[in-house]
Design brief:
This protein has 178 residues and is an alpha+beta fold. The chain is built from 2 helices and 8 strands; from the N terminus they run H-E-E-E-E-E-E-E-E-H. The strands form 2 sheets. It has a 4-stranded antiparallel β-sheet with strand order 1-2-6-5, with no helix packed on it. A 4-stranded antiparallel β-sheet has the order 4-3-7-8, with no helix packed on it. The longest helix has 26 residues.
């Protein structure tokens, strides 16, 4: 039957689609032994590829997107020991940057791009003005005058409500009487 070719083609397409994320997930153009990381606006690089020569391990350079070669970037001397060397830059602006490490013998230990993100803006604390007289809503907060007139009017309303309720309940018990 002729179903084998479309099945073979779809199988190759599925295999290519499955392999694509694996190729994209690898390290971005990093050299042997170079590792770049960011913390806020600080970029740091570590390497084990350089050897000390004349008291120097080498130099690392941080390039922004408008710079194209090693000498244009912010250069920092590598510091460390034989087991590892490092360099760091603080106050790095947001965007894509490239880190290049050149050992003291002139060989490039590696090149890697890194993205520095804008820090999330922290919400500013703002004090809201408080009411001068407090909240005057709800039971008891609506009036501030508790004089004799207010107490007599309130008592009359409560008494009228009690009398009306008793009269209504009494009428309910006797359906045809007033």
């Amino acid at each position: 039957m002729r179903y084998s070719k479309p099945l073979l083609r779809s199988g190759l397409t599925v295999a290519a689609a499955a392999a694509l994320p694996l190729t994209l997930a690898g390290p971005a153009a990093s050299g042997p032994g170079i590792s770049v990381s960011t913390t806020g606006s600080t970029v740091s690089v570590t390497t084990t590829a350089c050897a000390q020569l004349n008291g120097s391990w080498g130099t690392a350079s941080l390039l922004d997107s408008s710079q194209s070669n090693f000498s244009q970037g912010r250069q920092v001397a590598l510091a460390g020991t034989g087991s590892g060397q490092s360099a760091a830059w603080s106050g790095v602006g947001s965007g894509t940057h490239t880190v290049i490490v050149v050992c003291s013998n002139g060989t490039t230990a590696g090149t890697q791009s890194v993205v520095v993100a804008d820090p999330a803006p922290s919400p500013a604390a703002s004090a809201s003005p408080s009411p001068t007289r407090g909240v005057l809503g709800g039971i008891g907060g609506g009036s501030t005058d508790y004089g004799t007139v207010t107490l007599v009017a309130g008592g009359a309303l409560v008494g009228t409500g009690l009398v009306a309720t008793a009269w209504y309940l009494r009428r309910r018990g006797r359906p045809n009487r007033l």
